[in-house]
């Protein structure tokens, strides 16, 4: 008789029952993340500091969330990637509510370490490299001939830098169209090197994500049968 079918004393689960419950939890995990992000987004949209800035900051969530929902059954992602995307969405929503230059967490760090400015935007741009790195890595491993190695690593970094550059274009165009109204979205806080810092932190984020999470990511991809 298989181990999963063994009869156990009353009140104890069989291995098969435990596996079934674990599978249910895993299948609902993306829904839990979606609910958390939705709640944070709703909170973010209640009385934001500037409504225009809020729309500009959260538009990636409003575009990305429906895509993830519609592709969930056909192209489910790894739990790691769903988690990172949810965390990134929360970072964007919080920044949209306060504006990046006014997030309380950034002020706390500024006071604690004696920084000259609120660095919450730095966290946002680090995440802009960190999270897309795992997203790009997953899509490439599942849809292209690329395998883990130097070429994959380099291409993922290049994609993240290209994505960061495109986002800087969006900020630039917003500034041209919105004038002073786009100041909070740009969040430069008087730093003439803000654009360079943004792209550099995205670059560091892409490197860090691959160096620290590749093994975990590969294991989860293996469970999806794609590695």
Describe this structure in words.
It is built from eight helices and no strands. By secondary structure, the protein is an all-alpha fold. It has one domain (11-224). The two termini are 32 Å apart. Mean pLDDT is 85; it is low at 3-7.
Explain the layout of strands and helices:
Layout: H1 15-45, H2 51-70, H3 79-98, H4 104-113, H5 120-143, H6 150-178, H7 183-186, H8 194-224
Radius of gyration: 21 Å
- Major sheet details: none
Cα(first) to Cα(last) distance is 32 Å
* Percentage of residues in helical conformation: over 70%
Q: Given the structure, what is the number of helices?
A: 8
**How many extended strands?**
0
Q: What portion of the residues fall into strands of 2 or more residues?
A: under 5%
Tell me the count of domains: 1
Give start-end ranges of low-pLDDT stretches: 3-7
Provide mean pLDDT, rounded: 85
Q: What is the ordering of alpha helices and beta strands?
A: HHHHHHHH
Global morphology: globular
Counting helices, strands and paired strands, the structural category is mainly alpha
């Amino acid at each position: 008789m298989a181990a999963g079918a063994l009869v156990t004393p009353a009140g104890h689960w069989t291995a098969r029952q435990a596996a079934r419950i674990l599978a249910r939890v895993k299948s609902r995990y993306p829904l839990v993340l979606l609910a958390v992000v939705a709640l944070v987004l709703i909170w973010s949209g209640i009385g934001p500091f500037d409504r225009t800035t809020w729309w500009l900051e959260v538009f990636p969530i409003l575009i990305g969330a429906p895509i993830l929902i519609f592709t969930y059954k056909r192209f489910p992602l790894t739990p790691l990637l769903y988690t990172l995307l949810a965390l990134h969405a929360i970072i964007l929503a919080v920044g949209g509510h306060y504006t990046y230059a006014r997030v309380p967490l950034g002020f706390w760090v500024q006071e604690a370490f004696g920084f000259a400015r609120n660095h919450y935007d730095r966290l946002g741009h680090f995440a802009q490299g960190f999270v897309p790195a795992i997203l790009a890595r997953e899509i490439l491993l599942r849809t292209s001939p690329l395998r883990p190695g130097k070429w994959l690593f380099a291409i993922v970094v290049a994609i993240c830098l290209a994505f960061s550059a495109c986002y800087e274009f969006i900020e630039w165009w917003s500034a041209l169209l919105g004038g002073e109204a786009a100041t909070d979205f740009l969040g430069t806080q008087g730093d003439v090197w803000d654009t360079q810092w943004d792209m550099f932190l995205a670059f560091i984020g892409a490197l860090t994500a691959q160096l620290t999470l590749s093994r975990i990511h590969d294991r989860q991809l293996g469970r999806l049968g794609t590695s």
